[in-house]
C-alpha cells in the first residue's frame, strides 16, 4: 500500500477558501496531474468506441471481412485501454481524496492544538466535529472530481469534433445541447447548497447538544433535568430531519434533471440521425455511432453537473476550514526563542504580587475561587500578564518553551481514550518505578488495582468509567509524571474525601522535592502542609506566611479557609 506523504502538511494558505483549495492542489500536484492523465485516457478510450463500432458496421454492410476484423480488434483494444485507465484513475482518485482530506485533518488538528482554550470560546463543539465528519469529505470530493471532470471535458470535446466532422448539423445539435442542459440544471444548485448549509449548521448544533448531555448526564439525573434535555434534543433532531428532507427534495430534482435532459437530447439526436440515414446523408454505421455518442454523453454531462456540485460544496467546506485556520490564540505574539531563563528562578506576577519561590511547595488561597483560576492562567501564560520566570518575561519566551517549563493542571483537563499507562505517561518516558511513585503520591493505587488489566486497561473517552475523584487523582498522576520545572495545580483534591486528601497532601511535597510547585486551594489539609502560603483577595496579595500563622493573624484568611464569614 502506498504511504501518504503527510509527515509535514506544510503551512496552509488561509486567505480565502479558493486559495486554500489551490494550496491543497499544489501540494499534491504530481499525483493530481497523473490522475487527470488516467482520467483523460479512460474517457477518450470510451469516446472512441462508438466510432469504431460504426466503422465495423459499415464494413459489415459493405461485406468487408478484413475491415470488420480490424475494427473489431480496435474495439477490443479500446476496451482494454478503458479498463486499464479506469482502474488507474480510480486508484489515483482514492489517493488524491485521502491526501486532500487528511492534510485538512492535520492542519485543523494542529491549529486546534495551537489555539488551545481559545477554540471552544470561538466555535461550538459541534461545528468543530462537523469539520472532521463532513467538511473533509467535501474537500476530498472536490479534489477527486477534478480528475473525472477534466477527462469529461476532453471527452466532450473529442466527441464534438468527431460529430462535426461526420455531420455538421448533428454535431452542432450536440454542441449546443450540452451547455443548454448544463444551464438548465444550474438553477437547482444554489437552493441545494443553501439548504445543505442550513442542515450542516443544524447538525453541528445537534452534535454540541449531544456532547453537553453526555458530559453532564450524571448531573442532569441528579437534578431531574434529564427529560427536559431529552425533549430539547428530540426537537432539534426533528429540525435536522426536516432540513434533510428539504435537501433531499432538491437533490432528487437535480438527479431527475440529470437523467431527463440528456434523455431528451439522445432522443432528438437519434430521431434526426435516423432521418439523415434514410436520405443517405450518413451511413448506417454513422447512425449507430451517433446513437452511441448520444448515450455516451450522458456520463460526461452528469460528471460536469456533479463537478459543479462538488466543487461548490468543497468551496463551502473550505470556508469553514479557513475560519478555523484564521483564528489566533488569545495570547498574542510568538516570543523569542533565545529568551530561555536558567531553571530555579522565581515565578512572579507583578500585577497581583504573587511570587512563587523555587524548590518549594507554595499554596495560593483566594477569597474568590475564580481568582485562583485566573492567577493560574496568568502564571502559565494562558492569559496576557506581566509575569516573569527567572527574571525573563513569559511574553518574551517561545510558547513551546513556556509549556515545557510550566505546567498548569486544572480540573478541566480531559482523560482521553486508550491504554491507561499511555494516558498517564503520553511520552512513554517514565519507568515502572516512576509510574508507581506517581500513583502513590496521588493516592491512585487503588484505582489501578481495581481494573481487570491494571495499567494495561482501556480508558473510555473522557474517562467516564471513573468517578470525579478518581479522574482527579489520575490527572494528578499525569501531571506528576510530566515532571515540569514548575507545576501549578488548581484544586487538585476538591473531589476526593478527607482521608485521601490528607494522604495526597502528605505525599505531594515529597514527590516534588527540589521542584517548584504551586497548589491553588483553600483546603486546610493542603495549606497546612505547604512550605509557604499566599493569601489573595480582590486580585492582590493580602498576606503571606505559614498557614497557622495566617490563621492566627489574618481574619479574612481564617474566614476563607474555614468557610466562615469574613
UniProtKB/TrEMBL annotation:
Keyword field contains Heme: no
Annotated localization: Cell membrane
Keyword Cell membrane included in the entry's annotation: no
InterPro entries (UniProt xref): ABC1_TM_dom, ABC1_TM_sf, ABC_transporter-like_ATP-bd, ABC_transporter-like_CS, P-loop_NTPase, Type_1_exporter
Taxonomy, superkingdom: Bacteria
Molecular function in Gene Ontology: ATP binding
Listed transmembrane segments: 20-45, 68-88, 145-164, 170-189
Membrane topology annotation: Multi-pass membrane protein
Keywords: ATP-binding, Membrane, Nucleotide-binding, Transmembrane, Transmembrane helix
A Pfam family of this chain: ABC_tran
Domain named ABC transmembrane type-1: residues: 33-313
Domain (ABC transporter): residue spans on this chain: 322-563
Protein known as: ABC transporter ATP-binding protein
Source organism per UniProt: Sphaerisporangium aureirubrum
Phylogenetic lineage: Bacteria, Bacillati, Actinomycetota, Actinomycetes, Streptosporangiales
